[in-house]
């Protein structure tokens, strides 16, 4: 049953089939990770070099083989340096997909006794900040664990309130720079540093605040609320996509919808789901 089966002259076993399948999945995941970033072009350049190296080696061009061979021998090290951001993201996404992370994520992000997450204070605070052209960046934890990003800022672990959000993002507040992270129905941290997106397709009109929101949403399933300091526009970011210039009602609806969708995907159990369901 599990023995090799011949394809013309090749012996192709189940292990080979699994091998090819795993490599395909791995390459596809890598492509998804690099898609839309400049790293994809660098990766294609490196692959082209490798193919050229194989060709010149096969044809016996000694000098060129030697030169390209030198290049290839440092290629692995150079790739690790060049792609350190992408490798980190890849490992993060692998970790994110494991059951262990889900358990860990729930432990940090969704404690059993969590108060209902009301989107009202966030929407009201965003509206108020928008009217005053005060920038804001708020990340909502879903299944992905954001504790590593929370650790880059100042721990708060406070009850959610519109007043607290307004105080944090007030331009004179020492906490206003960076992002607020929300998890388990609480404001966990402020002044957090998020990864900046390298996607060249991000419109030039969007500043660093939006790029940071996009960056986080590319590598986690977090939903990020952004208020632009320049235009006062309110936006929501998820899966690397920005929904710009939202009206207050749209913001409330979309935020409720996305947070609920995230919870259903995370499949929290009965009481936990009821306890953490978003409410207006
Ligand atoms: N990596 C980051 N992580 C978290 N916050 C960031 C990051 N980079 C920038 N910010 C936030 O964005 C603010 C500055 O961004 P920038 O000046 O580009 O915003 P802006 O011009 O108001 O644009 P936007 O319209 O996106 O708000 C910083 O003061 C900081 O609060």
Could you write a compact summary of the structure shown?
The chain is of the alpha+beta class. The protein contains twelve helices and nine strands.
Characterization of this structure:
By secondary structure, the protein is α+β, with helices and mostly antiparallel strands. The chain is built from 12 helices and 9 strands. The chain has helices spanning 14-34, 38-59, 62-73, 75-82, 84-97, 99-109, 120-131, 147-150, 162-169, 208-219, 248-266, 270-276; strands at 5-7, 10-12, 136-140, 154-159, 179-183, 186-192, 223-227, 234-238, 241-243. The strands form 2 sheets. Strands 4-6-5-3-7-8-9 form a 7-stranded mixed sheet, sandwiched between helices. Helix 2 (38-59) runs antiparallel to helix 3 and helix 7 runs parallel beside helix 9. The longest helix has 22 residues, at 38-59. It is elongated and about 70 Å long. Its EC number is 2.7.7.85.
What does the radius of gyration come to?
23 Å
Binned, the helix content reads 40-55%
Give me the number of helical elements: 12
Give the total of beta strands. 9
By CATH reckoning, the class of the largest domain would read Alpha Beta
Function: Catalyzes the condensation of 2 ATP molecules into cyclic di-AMP (c-di-AMP), a second messenger used to regulate differing processes in different bacteria.
EC number: 2.7.7.85
Transmembrane segments: 38-55, 67-83
Subunit structure: Probably a homodimer.
């Amino acid at each position: 049953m599990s023995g090799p089966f011949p394809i013309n002259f090749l012996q192709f076993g189940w292990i080979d089939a699994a091998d090819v399948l795993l490599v395909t999945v791995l390459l596809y995941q890598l492509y998804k990770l690099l898609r839309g970033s400049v790293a994809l072009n660098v990766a294609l350049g490196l692959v082209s070099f490798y193919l050229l190296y194989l060709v010149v080696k096969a044809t016996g061009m000694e000098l060129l083989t030697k030169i390209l061979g030198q290049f290839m021998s440092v290629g692995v090290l150079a790739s690790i340096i060049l792609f350190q951001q992408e490798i980190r993201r890849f490992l993060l996404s692998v970790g994110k997909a494991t059951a262990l992370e889900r358990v860990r994520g729930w432990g940090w992000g969704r404690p059993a006794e969590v108060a209902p997450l009301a989107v009202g204070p966030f929407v009201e605070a965003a509206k108020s900040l928008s009217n005053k052209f005060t920038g804001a960046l708020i990340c909502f934890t879903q299944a992905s664990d954001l504790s590593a990003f929370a650790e880059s800022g100042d721990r708060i672990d406070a009850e959610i309130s519109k007043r607290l959000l307004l105080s944090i993002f007030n331009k004179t507040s020492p906490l206003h720079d960076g992002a607020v992270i929300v998890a388990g129905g609480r404001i966990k941290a402020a002044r957090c540093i998020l990864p900046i997106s390298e996607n060249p397709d991000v419109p030039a009109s969007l500043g660093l605040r939006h790029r940071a929101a996009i960056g986080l949403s590319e590598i986690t399933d977090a939903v990020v609320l952004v208020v632009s300091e320049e235009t006062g526009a309110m936006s929501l970011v998820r899966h690397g996509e920005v929904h710009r210039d939202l009206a207050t009602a749209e913001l409330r609806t979309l935020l409720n919808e996305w947070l609920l969708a995230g919870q259903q995907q995370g499949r929290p159990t009965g009481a936990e789901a009821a306890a953490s369901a978003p409410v207006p």
